[in-house]
Amino acid sequence: MQDTTAELRQRVRDVSRRYPGSQRAFAEQIGLDATKLSKSLTGTRRFTPAELTRIAEVTGVTVNWLLNGGDDAETAVAVPRRSARSEQGRGGSGDAGRYQQILDAAWHLIAERGYHSVRVSDVAQACGTSAATIHYYFPGRRDLLIETLRYSVKLAFDRQVAELHSISDAHERLLRLVELQLPTEGLLRSEWSIWLQVWNESALDPDLQVLHSDSYTRWHDTIARTIRQGQQQGVFTDRDAEELTVTLTALIDGLGVQVLAGRPGRTVRRMRQVLRDFVEREIVRH
Fold first, then answer.
1. Which domain holds residue 11?
2. Which key words are in the record (predicted)?
3. pLDDT along the chain (286 residues), means of 10
4. Which residue in 42, 59, 140, 161 could disulfide with 63, CB within 3.0 to 4.6 Å?
5. Three-state SS sequence of the chain
């Protein structure tokens, strides 16, 4: 369970006040009953990890900032490199609000239809605005793909910080990381779709390869950090943490691609079991 501190409550108050609309409208936007939001802000109820993730998504901040007061504060998982856009969302209004609306629309369209099937006019129609407005924030269609990748990294980072913030046992944390990376229906499957398309484009675009490498490094480092922590706690084998990380992330990637490609017998349930078996067999100390 999350530790709801006075500092966290104050930061949520700050972003909710800058949100265009009433507190009730803010509560509805994050999928929370207004009464529950009020109780969370007064300290009589704790925010859940899902609620913190949604608050960060709606307001453009990070869960790390909400919990720890800084986007790059030391936390349970590796911190991503900050995008040039990362400060635009703080507060969720004005130009930042329009930018986030466009990014959300582009992210969902690319995830659902594919990058090469989405036109700038499609994004404009989804936002109820003009193509010129889209180009103001994103000069070219390639910029949309780049920013949707950065957005996917932020979503994953927020989710992991919120879920792992209070888990000190490395074994439990690693299993939770695996669970958070499964391509289940909804948000996670859409994230996988974005990553799959970025992998495809990166094979032909050296500049995109650099961005992809920076983004993927955060995930790799999070796994490696968790394995090393488990070794320090005496719950994981002393095998080379880097090699274990390379193997585990490759296994996750390969199985995820097979699930999305619809290979017979490759289900999320099967993927989960294979990964948990690997952790138990190759990483856990016996």
1. 1-73
2. DNA-binding, Repressor, Transcription, Transcription regulation
3. 73 89 87 90 90 89 90 80 47 66 93 93 94 92 88 88 90 96 93 92 88 88 95 97 97 96 94 98 96
4. 161
5. CCCCCHHHHHHHHHHHHHCCCCHHHHHHHCCCCHHHHHHHHHCCCCCCHHHHHHHHHHHCCCHHHHHHCCCCCCCCCCCCCCCCCCCCCCCCCHHHHHHHHHHHHHHHHHHHHCHHHCCHHHHHHHHCCCHHHHHHHCCCHHHHHHHHHHHHHHHHHHHHHHHHCCCCCHHHHHHHHHHHCCCCCCHHHHHHHHHHHHHHHHCCCHHHHHHHHHHHHHHHHHHHHHHHHHHHHCCECCCCHHHHHHHHHHHHHHHHHHHHCCCCCCCHHHHHHHHHHHHHHHHECC
